[in-house]
Write a structure and sequence with these properties.
The protein is of the alpha+beta class and 360 residues long. The chain is built from 14 helices and seven strands. Strands 1, 2, 3, 4, 5, 6 and 7 form a seven-stranded mixed beta sheet that branches. α9 crosses α11.
Length: 360
Amino acid sequence: MNTKLQFSQRLLDWYHAYARRLPWRGLSDPYAIWISEIMAQQTRVDTVIPYFLRWMERFPNVQTLAKADEQDVLAAWEGLGYYSRARNMLKAAQIIHSEFDDQFPLKREDLEKLPGIGRYTGAAVTSIAFHQPEPVLDGNVKRVLSRVFDLAVMVNTSAGEKKCWELAEQLIPEEQPGDYNQAVMELGAMVCTPRSPLCGQCPVSDLCQSFALGNQAQRPVMQPKPAVPTYTVAAAVFKRGNAVLIARRPSKGLLGGLWEFPGGKMEPGETLPLALVREIKEELGVEIHVGEPLGEYKHAYTHFKVRLTAFACELDGSEPQPLEASEIRWVPLADLEQFPMGKIDRSISRDLEGRHGLSG
């Protein structure tokens, strides 16, 4: 048996014996597999499990999701981040419902035409649900292949990506391709980890060129990432009785469709209060008085970081208008949980609710 056949068979045997029990494992429903794969992108499996279970209870099939309101979908997704995933899932479900009579396309190429589904997700769904020999390639798979075949090419470049896809295509077995794909991802997640890989527990360590050379820590080779900028941001908290003003972001773009406390980035030469006065004028068309800071909040996104200060603010008497937001609302503090928000705005809302509870 050649090395590549041994690799595939050993992984399958190991997977069948040691794979984690996950709520989507062993399913053949393409909808459930699709949901689990989208949720697991750039998200830890332990985090995904409760979201997946709640999602499947709320939106058990593609028809239910297709008919759902975007705000309900975003609310169910809140906390998973990368909210374009949820919006694209809703769009894809609507297409599957209207154009494919609720039936998932059987071919990867057809799935890839749907919003939010690329080669990886299309291959995962078709291999696991439909048993088609379509390889997958994610960060875990790249790491495994880089070490087993001692790849010196940088895997996060187009040349490295191409090399990894070529290897993945050569390794995918005709039989049990879905189990194999899950096996190689499982190996990367549980054994062939980024730091301190558990080579003594690896079913293919004797086939691994990096293990033989002792250079596992140098694989995979990665192109250095650029420095991540930090943006300084201010947000305004307007109160009217027990209600606060929140704005819904446009559906497209970062945190699209989510609700937030209005504000924006500080520009060079500005203080945070001056930045907030300018931003509110642009967003809501009103002049404001900036009061005391209510708290500082930090969050890291993929390509940048945010340090936000929330301020208690007062309107000058004019009524704000949604010049840049989809809509604005005065919402009682007790009802804020019903409005889907990003992590920072949810933290602000909960701090406000906590203060209201203590003062009330």
